[in-house]
Amino acid sequence: MIKTQDLTKVYGSLHAVKNLNLDLSEGDLFGFIGPNGSGKTTTMRILATLLQPTWGEASVCGHSIYTHPKEIRRLIGYMPDFFGVYDDMRVIEYLEFFAAAYRIRGPARRKVCNDTLELVELGYKRDELVTSLSRGMTQRLGLARVLLHDPKVLLLDEPASGLDPRARIEMRGLLKELRKLGKTIMVSSHILPELADICNKVGIIERGVLKFNGTVSDLMKQIRRRTRLQIAVVGDLEPAARLMEQSTFVENVGLGDGYIEVTLAENVTDYSDLPTMLIDAGFKLTLFKEDELNLETAFMALTKGVTA
Q1: Do residues 275 and 285 make contact, with C-beta atoms less than 8 angstroms apart?
Q2: Residue 254: how many CB atoms within 10 A of its CB?
Q3: pLDDT tens across 182-232, in order?
Q4: Best CA proximity match to 267, nearest among 291, 293, 252, 249
Q5: How far is CA 240 from the centre of its chain?
Q6: How far apart are CA 170 and CA 248, in angstroms?
Q7: H-assigned helices in the chain
Q8: Rounded Cα gap, residues 98 and 91, in angstroms
Q9: What is the pTM of this model?
């Protein structure tokens, strides 16, 4: 559905996007992650045919951005990170205005607008002024606008930006629902743990260069080659820590805040003998778990916090 090959955008000596290669299939929910200024918005604007690349290829739904931009625009819904609304319009009027721009006419227009409002859970606000909506509701209205013509592909640039926790949860649920409807979605965000929960693929970009592109589980495997454990026992931790240091499976032992942090040797995944060692030595275990990686940790490990 979305394919790029060596996609590049250059401003003078600055590479906003450099040799970007993506391949998203139908039904993918792709999380596009990167620091501010890393090239996420530039990539989305190119895919939305709003910006010409310097070189490279890109296609959406099989259509080239160079030769068939009009066809692409009929098939996508692009929601920028900041978009304007007409404050003096009511919610239903706002949607009907854009539905008319999509050439949806007659009774079908009102039905499409009402159905879309229900999908984004704004039906109860249909007769309210747009200016009365909260930030979260405005974001949902913006999403409703790009859904009016039933696009196959959604390009959502920071849709959860500035939302409170409840609104972010609601947006996450809405994105899951849209994926169930068969939409292919590219979404950029800085709310990393939530992307891990909803996306089947992620890409990490920094200074215009794609550092990683694949599944969340593959990302975790790439970042961590050594398993870390958190262990706690009743009483003093230091004797238990010294015992762990004697194991051939263990590479490093340190003391955390109320627990022992054990790093296993590279590629060691079976650590079932360690709790047995502690119990046989008379220690009473109160905690024994693997220190899980999350998307935020992986992002920090792959990026340096610099922009283009």
Answers
A1: yes
A2: 11
A3: 999 999 876 666 677 788 899 989 889 998 898 877 777 776 667 889 999
A4: 249
A5: 40
A6: 48
A7: 40-47, 69-75, 91-101, 107-119, 135-147, 165-180, 192-198, 216-223, 238-245, 273-280, 295-302
A8: 11
A9: 0.78
The tokens describing 229, both together, are 């454990």
- The DSSP bridge partners found for residue 263 are 228, 252
Q: List all residues 6 or more positions away from 269 whose beta carbon is below 8 Å from its beta carbon.
A: 227
As a 3-state breakdown, the chain gives helix, strand, coil percent values, each rounded to 5, of 35, 30, 35
DSSP string, 36-52: TTSSHHHHHHHHTTSS-
C-alpha span between 279 and 231 (Å, rounded): 12
Q: Tell me: pLDDT of 307 over 50.
A: no
Residue 203: φ, ψ to 5°: -130, 135
Instruction: Give the residues across from 154 on adjacent strands.
Output: 77, 185
- CB atoms < 10 A from the CB of 51, how many? 16
Distance CA 301, CA 79 (A): 29
pLDDT band at residue 294 under the 50/70/90 scheme? low
- Collapsing DSSP to helix, strand or coil, 125 comes out as helix
Amino acid at 37: G
Q: Which domains does the chain have, with CATH numbers?
A: 2-82+147-221 (3.40.50.300), 225-292 (3.30.70.100)
Per the CB < 8 A criterion, the answer to whether 17 and 46 are in contact is yes
- Cβ(92)–Cβ(126) below 8 Å: yes
> How do 29-33 and 184-188 pair as beta strands?
parallel
The pLDDT tens digits of the residues spanning 225-247 come to: 678 899 999 999 999 999 999 99
Distant-in-sequence, close-in-space partners of 51: CB < 8 Å, separation ≥ 6? 9, 42, 45
Q: Which residues contact 64 (CB under 8 A, 6 or more apart)?
A: 57, 58
Q: How many residues does the chain have?
A: 308
List, in sequence order, every residue forming a beta bridge with 66; answer none if it has no partner. Answer: none
Give the β-pairing of 29-33 and 201-206.
parallel
